[in-house]
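A quick aside before the break. I want you to see a complete sequence-to-structure record at least once, exactly as it would be stored in a machine-readable document. Don't worry about memorizing anything.
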Amino acid sequence: MTTLIDLENVTRYYGEGEAQVRALDGVSLKIEAGEFIAIIGQSGSGKSTLMNVLGCLDTPTGGTYRVRGVDVASLDPDGLAGLRRDTFGFVFQRYNLLANASAEENVEIPAIYAGVSSAERKARANELLAKLGIGDRSSHRPSEMSGGQQQRVAVARALMNDAEVILADEPTGALDSASSEELLKLLEELHAAGRTIILITHEQNVAARARRIIEIKDGRIISDTGGEEVKAEISPHRKAGVAPTLALQASEAVKTAFRSLRANLFRTALTLLGVVIGVSAVVAMLAIGEGSQKQVLASIETMGSNLLFVRPGAPGTRMRGDAIATLTMEDATALAELDNVIAAVPMRDGRETLRFNEVDYQTSISGVTADWPLAQNWKLQYGAFFTDDDQVRRASVVVLGQTVATNLFSDPSSAVGQYVFL
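That is the input. The structure line, written in tokens, reads:
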């Protein structure tokens, strides 16, 4: 029959160079199904690292580790998780129970990963809790139970997937003497029922309850009483189940999330408020930024990003020879005939004082042609821009800007048809 657990020259190193720590240094060990083993050693001896390697919670640096003939190093992460889920059950010193979940819900967790249906999980969880003497505590949370009761919940959780091997890491470390005795008797009962028990401890009296004692020091096995071992009758191992479907995973994730949210409504409300404020602030900043961008683009558009100003030359300079000193209307006509030119508008600037009745206002004025609104993309609020006919007739027409109209007239709309003096 294939050995259940087989380690050959297993090493586990941490760090590199001079800082390298050899947690396991050439460990070779065989464990048969149905054994009750205690691995004993002082703190820092490597016993917890050995337990992590045995339970597939850690991978060795070197050597070979086989579980029922399967080389653990050959498994991918999913295969390793499946082996750990179906073969090993863990009991830790600190219980590691979910504070917001009931005893029943804590026990169910391994079966969720195994793809077991909700009804099946609940039935088995309650069955295990009843067998361990805490069936009446199934709806209680960890804070409502004693240390011994919490440890029994942890044992029930380890048995949920019918684990073949129970790995107990200092399970009595946080218990009083009475609760410790109850737990050790429970482990003995599980061993008598055919389970393989691996107990990690540093207490000699606890290790004495096992049938085989392995002592480890500085990462090496220094003694092993395995020759006198009498194994219990092995019970058939039931496969825990299959990998959970995506729908089951999503359903359980949602249930767990809502359970966590309900556990502390005030904290949940504050968290949601913080999220809302954060998102609102980001949205507001983006909106302000986009609005500012549009405003700047609109300003640039009114200024004319596609406008080209042609000037006759720098002011105050003297032209040489036959150089042209000014631009003429014919130049504007010639420019307008060029490809891709929408309009060419001759313009002359200056500063003058405008008067209406007794109100004077000094401003800049521009002499332009009828194509000016087209070139500048201007829209009139009141009245109409002068036309080519007005230009030919030299009509007395002026178009006032908003600032000028506001300063000369109390109501800018009343400026239409009025005469201003220039």
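Two observations worth writing down. The chain has a mean pLDDT of 83. The chain has 13 helices and twelve strands. We'll return to this after the break.
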